[in-house]
Design a protein that fits this description.
The structure is a single chain. By secondary structure, the protein is mainly beta. It has five domains: 36-201, Jelly Rolls; 207-299, Immunoglobulin-like; 301-403, Sandwich (Immunoglobulin-like), CATH 2.60.40.10; 416-516, Sandwich (Immunoglobulin-like); 531-607, Immunoglobulin-like (Sandwich). A hairpin with a 5-residue loop joins strand 22 (238-244) and strand 23 (250-255). The longest helix has 34 residues, at 2-35.
Length: 624
């Protein structure tokens, strides 16, 4: 018995020592790697969408990466099925955009920044930094050669086997195969770097519209069909446009007439993958273009803050100086304010252009009704985005009318000035979420409550004219109303006195009403590799905590057949009585409203067919 205890103590000491040494090595190398005291980063993480992970050269675990973090030699970056990331290189304006489900390694060798594309696709904009002499070269390494991208803007994707598809959108790229032969790809060229060198696309399909390097911008209130134009397909073919959310799943949405080289297609706002496919009259595929990525973005006219639509403004001076206020978009290069004093818009009294200003005071307005609108011009387009035509009225107060009264008539007491009504809603509440029915809630305040008896509220869709909306009168300084659908709504308020006169107006506010997002999927721990049951058949499963989750649902399947579905309040469970074999397990979370969230990726659970329990042995046999 004593010898057995000695063996256990020695085993415990040895095991603890190994664990301690491993722990010390892991964290000491981690500190060394993270310090980078004498190392300059190769790039920085720019815009991040969804989950993006990095792995350092000397590490085994993947870690989440955030905007602004530096990237060093040998680091790997990977994106999820919905993840995107922009990597901005140091010492130049060059950058690359890594697409969903992609994996890339960044290295620095012989004065060059080398990219190893392991999976997926990316876009490189290196032409922007081509004129900077001190910028290092930028190349893409593959098993079959090297692509010099230092003077090109190009799209690259991992092809079949070890090949890499290259599309030069602007500039030129040099391809050097492993046998030493060099080939230059110019603007519009496409090819694949494979085992036999550079294989060019024999169809030589060129797309002239839309612009492959810029997003397609549309007026948010007037979505128009997008023109597609090309050349290079056989004249006897019929070309169809295929659209999808990823490169693997694209479906035809529009088809040109036989022999035509253009078509029009309506696409919703967002990011899309697309390609052109040419077919013969018999339906046989005669060729197809490369796969491109396009983003359709919404453009808005400046958001009007003041005056609100159809507002009646009490003038305290004659003539009256009117102040216009607005909010501009981030990529707006110019805004124009136009004001007319007649409904036919034949007599303009002001046309002013602005670049950075957000207000303007128009002097000398008389009593009457005025019509106005704001127009935006954007950096990459000469076509303006016209705002909605709106109107307001200037009404002189009793103080200006006193001069017309007989001298014997005592002047009425002037009403106290009421400052404009101001929202008290925080910026974080400008986006409101709903679970079942969309609804908007907001409140406000004024500094002169004794002269305000009610409020007149207008709430309307941003695509709707405010003059067509019937105002709602409320007694309290809060308002709640259902809305027909999710979207962006404009709210405006007028303060009324006991006589029903307007004594103050509030600046318009844009409120976004959106469905409450479902919970993200929890992830099993560890996050990679199969889940392993112990030798006695006991399976201990653990997953990360999801904020907002009330419980978790675990599903176990084998060969597609569901064996067990259980709910848990905690993030761990132990399962017994599973027969040896492989099982598929998934985990999802439910929120406080009982809604199921996203289901995590299917993981393999392996129950071994061997046990660590020894069969009983007979020490003595006594026969009577």
């Amino acid at each position: 018995m004593k010898n057995q205890w000695n063996r256990l103590v020695i085993a415990a000491i040895a095991s603890s020592s190994v664990f301690a040494l491993t722990f010390y090595w892991y964290h000491s190398t981690g500190k060394t790697q993270n310090s980078h005291s004498n190392e300059k980063p190769l790039a920085y993480v720019g815009k991040v969408v969804d989950d993006i992970q990095r792995r350092q050269a000397t590490r085994l675990l993947w870690q989440l990466v955030n905007t602004g973090e530096p990237l060093y030699d040998g680091e790997a970056i990977r994106t999820s099925d919905r993840g995107e990331v922009r990597i901005q290189f140091t010492d130049s304006d060059r950058y690359l955009d890594l697409e969903p489900e992609s994996l890339i390694v960044i290295k620095k060798t012989q004065g060059e920044i080398a990219l190893d594309l392991m999976e997926g696709s990316l876009f490189v904009n290196a032409k922007a930094g081509a004129q900077e002499g001190d910028a290092p070269g930028l190349v893409l390494n593959s098993a079959n050669g090297k692509v010099d991208l230092s003077q090109a803007s190009a799209s690259l994707s991992k092809g079949s086997g070890n090949s890499v598809d290259v599309q030069v959108l602007e500039g030129k790229a040099s391809v050097k195969s492993k046998d030493g032969k060099s080939t230059e790809l110019s603007t519009g060229s496409m090819g694949a770097v494979g085992a036999s060198g550079v294989e060019f696309d024999k169809q030589k399909v060129k797309v002239s519209k839309p612009n492959l390097q810029k997003p397609v911008a549309m007026n948010a209130d007037d979505l128009q069909p997008i023109p597609f134009e090309w050349s290079g397909f056989p004249t006897e073919s019929q070309v169809s446009l295929y659209i999808g959310k990823n490169r693997r799943d694209m479906k035809p949405i529009a088809t040109a007439n036989m022999g035509d080289s253009s078509l029009m297609a309506e696409l919703p706002f967002g990011k899309h993958y697309w390609k052109l496919v040419a077919k013969s009259p018999l339906g046989e595929t005669m060729g197809e273009s490369a796969v491109y990525r396009m983003e359709v973005i919404a453009r808005y006219a400046p958001t009007v803050v003041f005056p609100t639509a159809d507002v009646e403004i009490p003038a305290t001076t004659s003539p009256f100086d009117m102040t216009f206020k607005w909010q501009k978009s981030s990529d707006t290069r110019q805004m124009t304010l136009q004001v007319w004093d007649d409904p036919k818009l034949s007599h303009s009294i002001a046309t002013k252009s602005f670049t950075t200003e957000d207000s303007y005071t128009l002097p000398g307005l008389k009593d009457g009704t005025y019509y106005w609108r704001m127009t935006s011009y954007f950096n990459d387009s000469e076509k303006p985005v016209l705002g909605k035509m709106q109107k307001f009225s200037v009404k002189y107060t009793d103080m200006q009318k006193m001069a017309a009264l007989p001298a014997a008539t005592p002047p009425p007491a002037p009403k106290p000035e009421v400052k404009p009504v101001a929202f008290t809603m925080a910026e974080t509440q400008m986006t409101q979420y709903f679970v079942t029915s969309p609804k908007a809630d907001f409140s406000w305040g004024t500094e002169n409550l004794q002269n305000v008896s009610s409020y007149r509220v207008r709430l309307h869709d941003e695509a709707q004219d405010a003059s067509e909306v019937t105002p709602v009168e409320v007694k309290e300084n809060k308002f709640s109303a259902p809305v027909p659908k999710p979207g962006r709504y404009i709210a405006s308020i007028e303060a009324m006195d006991k006589d029903g006169q307007v004594v103050g107006t509030g600046s318009s506010k844009a409120v976004t009403v959106a469905p409450m997002p479902i919970l993200q999927a929890p992830l099993f721990i560890p996050t990679e590799g199969p889940l392993q049951a112990s030798m006695d058949g006991r399976s201990t499963l653990e997953w990360n905590n999801v904020e907002g989750a009330t419980d978790y649902e675990l599903v176990i399947k084998k060969e597609g057949k569901e064996l067990k579905r259980s709910k848990y309040k905690t993030t761990t469970t132990a399962i017994r009585n599973l027969l040896p074999g492989e099982y598929d397990v998934t985990i999802s979370a439910r929120d406080t409203y009982g809604r199921p969230g996203e289901t995590g990726p299917v993981r393999k659970l392996i129950v071994p067919d061997k046990s660590n329990l020894k069969a009983p042995t007979l020490k003595k046999i006594k026969v009577n």
